[in-house]
């Protein structure tokens, strides 16, 4: 009887060990999948991004260079349209991408080109305060890094050779906000013209001088263009959408507002968002406009941001892609499949790969 009990005890102990070993393997696979998909993949992907080199003339080789990041259309979900799981997934993706980019790339200034929130025009005061708090958590940054949000603050300013325009206010219908915005743009245009003049006229005497360089125009809406038909690249609009005509004041600024901005500010570069897709457009007198794709998986499978190296006279841009969402989903699917195989093998519903290979070799030898 004692021997039977001892044998039963050993059997039970062996079974417990096998189960604990299976549990350890399952936990290890789940942990490895989570660690890779939610942390490591961001470092592996963003680590490949490099700041572009600015080609400066020899006589301007001592110019200070500014490292700037440009991203757009984060669309943080609110309480009306946002499912909690969707909010959790998308916001975690943007938080990890942004924090990883800050740590690896060390930008000096970050610009977000509008559409920060998805429900700003419908939010209650409390919901708006909650959304702002979440935004500040996701896009937290060190004190030495300047973060500027374009549009939404109904402001126009001049920082580091950048003109930030609330393009939502450029409807041209005479509204109070539109009139104020246009007046401020004219005022900045006047100051820029004074800074460009070698011999200042009497009307520039009382003006505080700005850097004597063409500005970079930052706004949410793109300047007027007929469509995305001439856009190309992996992150351009889908082929079936590129020929759809743009509506003025909805998909892009009106032709009139665009001409005014180009005429008044004479920018060397324009960066915009809103379309969620990438595009490069050459305007009028050779002014390049870059449409910055969305930063969120909610709007596209391959989000990205722009890295810019800027001097008072030159600039160089490069694009940095974030992890593809389908890559992360495929990794999780592989991990789930591996978990299923482990469990089937444990319960002997599936032969182990080694045993299956050994039996296959034996059959081949006998035939």
TrEMBL record:
Keywords: ER-Golgi transport, GPI-anchor biosynthesis, Hydrolase, Manganese, Membrane, Metal-binding, Transmembrane, Transmembrane helix, Transport. InterPro entries: Calcineurin-like_PHP, Metallo-depent_PP-like, MPP_MPPE1, PGAP5/Cdc1/Ted1. CDD domains: MPP_MPPE1 (cd08165). One of its GO terms (cellular component) is endoplasmic reticulum-Golgi intermediate compartment membrane. One of its GO terms (molecular function) is metal ion binding. Its main location: endoplasmic reticulum. It is found in: Endoplasmic reticulum-Golgi intermediate compartment membrane. PANTHER family: METALLO PHOSPHOESTERASE RELATED (PTHR13315), METALLOPHOSPHOESTERASE 1 (PTHR13315:SF0). Interacts with GPI-anchor proteins (via the GPI portion). Interacts with TMED10. Metallophosphoesterase that catalyzes the removal of a side-chain ethanolamine-phosphate (EtNP) from the second mannose of the GPI-anchor protein intermediate. Participates in the glycan remodeling steps of GPI-anchor maturation to allow an efficient transport of GPI-anchor proteins from the endoplasmic reticulum to the Golgi. Belongs to the metallophosphoesterase superfamily. MPPE1 family. This is Metallophosphoesterase 1. The lineage of its organism: Eukaryota, Metazoa, Chordata, Craniata, Vertebrata.
């Amino acid at each position: 009887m004692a021997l039977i009990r001892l044998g039963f005890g050993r059997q039970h102990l062996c079974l417990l060990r096998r189960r604990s070993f299976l549990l350890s393997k399952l936990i290890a696979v789940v942990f490895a999948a989570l660690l890779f998909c939610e942390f490591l993949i961001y470092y592996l992907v963003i680590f490949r991004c490099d700041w572009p080199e600015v080609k400066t003339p020899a006589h301007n080789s001592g110019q200070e260079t500014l490292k700037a990041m440009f991203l757009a259309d984060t669309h943080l979900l609110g309480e009306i349209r946002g499912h909690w799981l969707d909010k959790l997934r998308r916001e975690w993706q943007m938080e990890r991408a942004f924090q990883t980019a800050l740590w690896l790339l060390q930008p000096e200034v970050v610009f977000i080109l509008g559409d920060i929130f998805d429900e700003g025009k419908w939010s209650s005061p409390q919901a708006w305060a909650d959304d702002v708090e979440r935004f500040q958590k996701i896009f937290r940054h060190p004190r030495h890094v300047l973060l500027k949000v374009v549009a939404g603050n109904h402001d126009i300013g001049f920082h580091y050779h950048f003109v930030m325009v609330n393009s939502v206010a450029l409807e041209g219908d005479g509204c109070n906000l539109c009139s104020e915005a246009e007046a401020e743009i004219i005022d900045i245009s006047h100051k820029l013209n004074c800074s460009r003049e070698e011999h200042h006229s009497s009307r520039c005497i009382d003006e505080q001088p700005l850097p004597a360089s063409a500005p970079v125009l930052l706004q949410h809406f793109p300047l007027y263009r007929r469509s995305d038909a001439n856009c190309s690249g992996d992150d351009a609009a889908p082929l079936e959408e590129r020929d759809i005509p743009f509506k003025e004041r909805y998909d892009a600024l009106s032709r009139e507002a665009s001409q005014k901005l180009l005429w008044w500010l004479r920018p060397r570069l324009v960066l915009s968002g809103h379309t969620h897709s990438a595009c490069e457009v050459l305007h009028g007198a050779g002014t390049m406009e870059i449409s910055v794709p969305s930063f969120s998986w909610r709007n596209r499978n391959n989000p990205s941001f722009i890295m810019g190296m800027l001097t008072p006279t030159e600039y160089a841009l490069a694009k940095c892609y974030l992890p593809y969402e389908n890559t992360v989903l495929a990794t999780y699917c592989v991990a789930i499949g591996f978990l299923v195989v482990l469990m089937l093998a444990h319960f002997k519903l599936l032969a182990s790969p080694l045993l299956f290979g050994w039996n296959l070799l034996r059959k081949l030898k006998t035939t």
